[in-house]
Specification:
Elements: H1 2-12, E1 16-19, H2 24-32, E2 37-42, H3 48-53, E3 59-62, H4 69-81, H5 98-110, E4 118-122, H6 134-147, E5 151-154, H7 161-169, E6 176-177, H8 184-191, E7 196-200, H9 203-210, E8 215-218, E9 233-236, H10 263-266, H11 270-283
Parallel strand pairs: 1-2, 2-3, 4-5, 4-7, 5-6, 7-8, 8-9
Helix pairs in contact: 1-2, 5-8, 6-7, 6-11
Length: 285
């Protein structure tokens, strides 16, 4: 794999490589490809293998925890190829196709929800350490529909069906179920229709940020100082001595407490999230 990748890059005769996902392989392959200028982010957590391999790079730029990862990427681009992106140009952007927008409009029309305030909730997470319980999400969704005069639309991919069904089965009210209806491009069009998006720390949260939608990030174990959150957000995160334990370049997949409790997630209450939702909705009316 690595030799084939290096051979393919060498045929393209690149003169510069920029590595935003640092690991030993991504340091070695550009060298084998005979790329003369090799730049890389240097993560705040790394093993001895990467430390040794990083010496093969022309320049490494250290990422620090008090900086957004987007800021670090901009600094690396500025220093490596001198394109002079301003440090305040960290706003995420999201583009959608007209086809995706049409599909979302047709779905909302079919559900008869074109002129209703929608709040998106994504209950599932690929990293199960971050996943809030279906019981808590069901309480959040019910309270939003009963108290905040909004409709809840549950989002997720085909693989999230079990989690979505568990949330729905514990709800007293009826949500809109869009699980499996949209691919990522179409999800971006759906997000732009929302008044608020609620999720654990996951990719769709940052899609919503890029779409300009207010978000609530149930952050769990994550280091939020690294995250690009925009200017309309609330972070729900418990103050525990073990938080954070999950970082951009050192993702935690299991609770390291003994015994493992996942307190950073399991202790989050529905009321905390509802209070944050109410505040954001009033602020963005």
């Amino acid at each position: 794999g690595k030799l084939r990748a290096a051979s393919g890059l060498r045929r393209k005769r690149f003169d510069t490589s920029i590595c935003l996902q640092p690991n030993a392989a991504n340091a070695i392959v550009p060298l084998w490809a005979l790329i003369q200028k090799r730049y890389s982010v240097y993560p705040h957590f790394c093993g001895i293998t990467f430390k040794l391999a990083s010496g093969l790079n022309t320049q490494n730029l250290r990422h620090t925890l008090n900086k957004s990862i987007v800021e670090t990427y901009i600094r690396l681009l500025n220093q490596s190829i001198g394109i002079h992106i301003r440090q305040d140009s960290t706003k995420l952007e999201l583009y959608t196709s007209s086809e995706a927008e049409i599909k979302v409009d047709e779905f909302l029309k079919k559900m008869n929800i074109q002129n209703i305030r929608l709040i998106g909730i994504a209950p599932a997470a690929r990293n199960k350490l971050k996943e809030l319980t279906p019981t808590t999400f069901s309480r959040i969704a019910d309270t939003i529909q009963e108290r905040l005069n909004c409709r809840v639309i549950l989002t997720g991919g085909v693989g999230d069906r079990d989690v979505i069904d568990k949330v729905k089965s514990q709800m007293k009210t009826v949500p809109i179920d869009s699980c499996g209806e949209f691919n990522l491009e179409e999800l971006s069009a759906l997000l732009k229709k929302l008044s608020l998006f609620i999720s654990v720390d996951s990719g769709p949260v940052y899609m919503a940020v890029a779409a300009g939608i207010p978000i609530i990030n149930i952050a769990g174990p994550c280091a939020m100082s690294e995250r690009p959150l925009g200017d309309r957000y609330a972070v729900v995160q418990e103050s525990l001595e073990c938080v954070p334990c999950s970082y951009t370049f050192a993702t935690a997949n299991k609770c390291t407490r003994i015994p493992p409790t996942r307190d950073c997630i399991t202790s989050v209450s529905a009321e905390e999230v509802i209070t944050a939702a109410d505040t954001l909705l009033k602020r963005n009316i």
